[in-house]
């Protein structure tokens, strides 16, 4: 900032207990699904998919957002992309990203428009999503009945356990 510029930012505290859910916060828009994706994802939702995550927007300021995510064990995160870069920081639990297993204090960066997916580990995973954007999109890249059938089976198999799941412990 130059000496002649004034910042409109104010010191602010953000409490996790006050954090809205991702869709409630209005910081993510979902790009239209193809008819095949709509039918497949509807099947996954009906199998209990929404029981497997907890997502809260901790901070959403112009040009910056911080989101806390808890994906429970077995959560079938689909291949997707966003139109904003994102740095992910793992708080607790583990995840599998390609051939890599990442755990507490590990991080990874996904550039805008790069499709990705990861699998929560046996305890699930808690992580932070850090973006230099206060609005981003979600583009579902998953396709085909085989993917959606498997994801629906995973959601149905874990649904009851997700209702009473506890957060992963901080290791390491």
Order of helices and strands: HEHEEEEEEEEH
Strand fraction equals: 25-35%
Please count the beta strands (DSSP E, at least 2 residues each). Answer: 9
Find the CATH topology of the domain at 18-35 and 52-141: Jelly Rolls
**Content-based structural category:** alpha+beta
- Proper CATH architecture of the domain at 18-35 and 52-141: Sandwich
Descriptive notes:
- The protein is α+β, with helices and mostly antiparallel strands.
- The chain has a domain at 18-35 and 52-141: Jelly Rolls (Sandwich).
- It has helices at 22-25, 35-46, 145-163, and strands at 28-30, 53-61, 64-71, 80-81, 86-97, 100-102, 107-110, 119-131, 136-140.
- The strands form two sheets. Strands 2, 3, 5, 6, 7 and 8 form a six-stranded antiparallel beta sheet that branches. It has a three-stranded mixed beta sheet with strand order 1-9-4.
- Strand 2 and strand 3 (64-71) form a beta hairpin.
- Helix 2 runs parallel beside helix 3.
- Residues 1-5 have low confidence and may be disordered.
């Amino acid at each position: 900032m130059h000496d002649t510029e004034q910042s409109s930012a104010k010191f602010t505290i953000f409490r996790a207990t006050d954090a809205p859910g991702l869709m409630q916060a209005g910081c993510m828009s979902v790009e239209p699904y193809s008819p095949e994706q709509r039918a497949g994802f509807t099947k996954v939702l009906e199998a209990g998919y929404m029981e497997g995550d907890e997502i809260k927007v901790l901070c959403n300021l112009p040009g910056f957002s911080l989101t806390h995510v808890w994906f429970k064990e077995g959560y079938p995160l689909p291949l997707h992309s966003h139109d904003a870069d994102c740095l992910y920081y793992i708080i607790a639990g583990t995840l599998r990203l390609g051939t890599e297993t990442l755990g507490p204090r590990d991080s990874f960066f996904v550039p805008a428009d790069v499709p990705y997916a990861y699998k929560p580990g046996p305890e699930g995973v808690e992580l932070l999503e850090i973006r230099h954007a206060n609005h981003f999109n979600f583009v579902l890249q998953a396709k085909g009945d085989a993917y959606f059938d498997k994801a629906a089976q995973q959601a149905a198999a874990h649904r009851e356990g997700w209702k009473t799941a506890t957060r992963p412990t901080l290791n390491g």
